């Protein structure tokens, strides 16, 4: 089963992010903005500067005490007045990291950023002078698209007569705990196209955090170069990246669960890497890790509904058809059965959602595969827990507008 279950990879130690996107092996046409500008400091005429701990800034996902982002698709959100927003990124920003950002409900724009100042919103940015009804205050949102690279916020700047505005959080929170699948590895815009992001953003009215990292096991073992598994790493602020090891060595900051809104729903998709013979995790170790992990998640989030997702683990051709491999099918169900009387652990059966052609050559879902998973999970959450959909139109999945405007083939 080795051939379809290689789920990750030695995490590349690239010093620099590259923003060329390959689609079916061809260079994808992109329109990334060049936002680099001369440094803006607290004294620069025409600008008002806020520090990274300004109360108006809402950080999404996991950020550490130095305002460095971690894990998959972390974000920043705030309201602002005026027509300009610039951000000064700190020295711990991955060089050239691709970020998505938008104003109000207009489409995401992309730019690659490095340490230094980037002028992201200016009077020519779409959405600033829209006709009524006009969304006020203007919201600014930013997401890191990748799972290993990150940014550090040093300062946020608006024009001198303007200000930042604190936006309230949505009332509900969902947390995704996963590996490369949840973090969108090999999807077009990586974490920003993955099913974790697509579910969280897809609801349109919930806060979400994606603590997922490629190659990571549930069991605390070295898997594909990730030194620790999620039973350890999930309790840390940073992920298992090379970047984290450079900044924190083996002593990451602990994540302060009490200082952040508790998750109402936790969706776990873990075990595909444990299930790979390369990582030496036995089925007994996996099951006992899962049993204790669920207890630990319940301890930090006593009111959360915990959903255990079954694993598809790729497809193989058999005879003149295809079949799903699956991983730890019985073990995951047994963990669910162990806890089900408590009422807070649920089993999401993913079998039948994906077909063999929803998996790309690098063993991960295509963009379509991610959307299928996300759509089913969202409907499951709506029916089971009564979470209504809050998205009203602004795009969630960027550049998935494939169309046909001819007829009669
Ligand atoms: C993005 O990053 C690449 C490589 O780091 C760089 O050459 C390019 O000029 C950057 N800007 C845009 C707008 O793509
Ligand atoms: C701003 O100007 C003051 C007074 O000229 C100076 O002491 C300070 O270092 C400057 N700050 C920055 C960030 O340039
Ligand atoms: C932010 O940090 C600065 C400098 O460390 C401090 O003076 C300020 O009070 C902090 N502000 C908030 C809102 O925590
Ligand atoms: C918005 O209005 C300002 C002046 O009020 C103008 O300078 C700017 O070009 C306008 N932006 C757009 C996108 O139309
Ligand atoms: C797995 O076990 C084999 C044989 O004992 C060993 O060579 C290999 O280093 C182990 N791999 C890991 C990731 O521990
Ligand atoms: C992976 O899971 C499958 C399905 O439950 C099981 O048959 C297989 O033994 C597991 N393999 C490893 C290496 O854990
Ligand atoms: C999951 O769904 C598949 C396909 O419908 C079914 O064969 C399987 O029995 C289900 N598993 C569980 C545990 O219900």
Explain this structure.
- It is a single chain.
- With 409 residues, this protein is of the alpha+beta class.
- The chain has 2 domains: 32-165, Galactose-binding domain-like (Jelly Rolls, Sandwich); 173-385, Rossmann fold (3-Layer(aba) Sandwich).
- The chain is 17% helix and 25% strand.
- The chain is built from 6 helices and 19 strands.
- The strands form 5 sheets. Strands 4, 5, 7, 8, 10 and 12 form a 6-stranded antiparallel sheet that branches. It has a 5-stranded parallel sheet with strand order 14-13-15-16-19, sandwiched between helices. A 4-stranded antiparallel sheet has the order 3-11-6-9, with no helix packed on it.
- Helix 1 (195-203) links the parallel strand 13 and strand 14 (206-212).
- The longest helix is centred in the C-terminal third of the chain and has 19 residues, at 367-385.
- It is globular and about 65 Å long.
- The two termini are 40 Å apart.
- Mean pLDDT is 94; it is low at 1-6 and 8-15.
- It binds 2-acetamido-2-deoxy-beta-D-glucopyranose (7 copies).
- Pfam families: Lipase_GDSL_2.
- Residues 1-19 form the signal peptide.
- This is Acetylxylan esterase.
- Residues 176-370 form the SGNH hydrolase-type esterase domain.
- It comes from Lojkania enalia.
Task: Please outline what is shown here.
By secondary structure, this protein is of the alpha+beta class. The chain is built from six helices and 19 strands. It binds 2-acetamido-2-deoxy-beta-D-glucopyranose (7 copies).
């Amino acid at each position: 089963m080795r051939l379809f279950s290689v789920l990750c990879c030695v995490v590349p130690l690239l010093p620099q992010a590259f923003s060329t996107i390959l689609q079916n092996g061809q260079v994808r046409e992109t329109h990334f903005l060049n936002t680099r500008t001369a440094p803006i400091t607290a004294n620069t005429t025409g600008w008002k500067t806020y520090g990274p701990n300004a109360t108006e800034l809402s950080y999404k996902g996991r950020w550490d005490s130095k305002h460095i982002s971690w894990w998959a698709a972390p974000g920043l959100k705030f309201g602002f007045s005026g027509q300009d927003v610039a951000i000064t990124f700190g020295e711990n920003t991955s060089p050239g990291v691709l970020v998505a950002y938008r104003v109000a409900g207009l489409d995401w724009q992309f730019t690659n950023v490095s340490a230094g100042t980037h002028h992201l919103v200016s009077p020519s940015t779409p959405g600033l002078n829209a006709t009524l009804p006009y969304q006020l205050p203007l919201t600014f949102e930013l997401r890191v698209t990748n799972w290993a690279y990150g940014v550090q916020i040093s300062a946020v700047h608006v024009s001198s007569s303007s200000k930042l505005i604190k936006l309230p959080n949505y009332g509900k929170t969902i947390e995704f705990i996963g590996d490369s699948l949840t973090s969108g590895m090999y999807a077009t815009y990586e974490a920003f196209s993955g099913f974790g992001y697509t579910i969280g953003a897809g609801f349109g009215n919930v806060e979400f955090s994606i603590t997922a990292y490629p190659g990571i096991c549930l069991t605390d073992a070295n898997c594909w170069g990730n030194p620790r598994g999620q039973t350890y790493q999930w309790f840390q602020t940073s992920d298992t990246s090379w970047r984290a090891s450079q900044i924190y060595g083996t002593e990451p900051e602990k994540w302060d669960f009490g200082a952040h809104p508790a998750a109402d729903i936790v969706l776990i998709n873990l075990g595909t890497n444990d299930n790979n013979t390369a990582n030496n995790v036995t089925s007994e170790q996996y099951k006992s890790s899962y049993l204790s992990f669920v207890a630990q998640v319940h301890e930090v989030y006593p009111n959360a509904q915990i959903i255990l997702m079954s694993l598809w683990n790729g497809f193989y051709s058999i005879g003149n058809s295809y079949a799903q491999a699956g991983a730890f099918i019985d073990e995951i169900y047994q963990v669910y059965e162990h806890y089900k009387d408590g009422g807070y652990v649920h089993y999401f059966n993913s079998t039948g959602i994906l077909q063999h052609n929803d998996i790309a050559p690098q063993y991960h879902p295509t963009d379509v595969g991610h959307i299928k998973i996300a759509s089913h999970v969202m409907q499951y959450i709506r029916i089971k827990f009564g979470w209504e959909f809050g998205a009203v139109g602004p795009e969630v999945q960027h550049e998935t507008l494939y169309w046909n405007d001819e007829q009669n083939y």
